[in-house]
């Protein structure tokens, strides 16, 4: 009988571990250039790092959010200011999160590409984190964990509803 560890069914034989058949190929990208490009216009650093789809999506969300934020900022001093304040607050949060996310993601993506480790990351945990910050658990959907995404989505909806209906004065007393 052959004593090959691949054909043996006994537990006492040594188990071979799988080896990587290829070495990661680094794609040198300057993390400083990626950072500065995304600092100027979010999404351009990702495009520089050959993450074109991610960069275009970031730009496609950031540019309108920034334009609406500026528009609502100008309206805050006018007679419709109170009506605009709620939406302005949401847009400022989205715009700020996307801006910070874009330049940090571009910086770390460039470092991963230069090290050759980017090819082994299927879904970016940074994208999942920003989705979770901006939405109720959509980052889990991005990572392919739908069940957890539904739990977080409906769980936050269930727990946030009573808090949203509570008068602000009642929370402090």
Write a structural description.
The structure is a single chain. This protein is mostly helical and 173 residues long. The mean pLDDT is 77. Helices cover 66% and strands 0% of the residues. The protein is flat, with a radius of gyration of 24 Å. It starts with 30 loop residues before the first helix and ends with a helix. It contains 8 helices and no strands. The chain has helices at residues 31-40, 44-48, 52-75, 81-115, 125-134, 138-142, 146-165, 168-172. The protein folds into 2 domains: 29-118; 122-173, no CATH class.
In which range does the helix fraction lie?
Answer: 55-70%
Low-pLDDT stretches:
none
H/E series? HHHHHHHH
Overall form: flat
Radius of gyration: 24 Å
Q: Could you give a short account of the major beta sheet? A: none
User: First CA to last CA: what distance?
Assistant: 79 Å
**What would you call the structural class?**
mainly alpha
Number of distinct beta strands: 0
Please report which band the strand proportion falls in: under 5%, 5-15%, 15-25%, 25-35%, 35-45% or over 45%.
under 5%
Q: Overall mean pLDDT score?
A: 77
Number of helices: 8
């Amino acid at each position: 009988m052959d004593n090959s560890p691949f054909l043996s069914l006994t537990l006492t034989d040594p188990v071979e571990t799988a080896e990587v058949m290829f070495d990661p190929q680094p794609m040198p990208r300057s993390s400083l250039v990626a950072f500065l490009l995304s600092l100027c216009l979010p999404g351009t650093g990702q495009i520089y790092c050959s993450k074109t789809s991610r960069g275009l999506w970031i730009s496609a969300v950031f540019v309108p959010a920034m334009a609406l934020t500026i528009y609502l900022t100008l309206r805050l001093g006018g007679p419709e200011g109170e009506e605009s304040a709620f939406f302005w607050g949401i847009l400022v949060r989205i715009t700020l999160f996307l801006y910070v996310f874009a330049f940090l993601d571009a910086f770390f993506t460039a470092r991963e590409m230069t090290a050759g480790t980017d090819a082994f990351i299927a879904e970016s945990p940074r994208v999942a984190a920003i989705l979770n910050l901006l939405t109720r658990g959509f980052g889990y959907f991005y990572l392919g964990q739908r069940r957890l995404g539904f739990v977080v989505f409906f769980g936050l909806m269930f727990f946030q509803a009573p808090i949203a209906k509570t008068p602000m004065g009642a929370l402090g007393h």
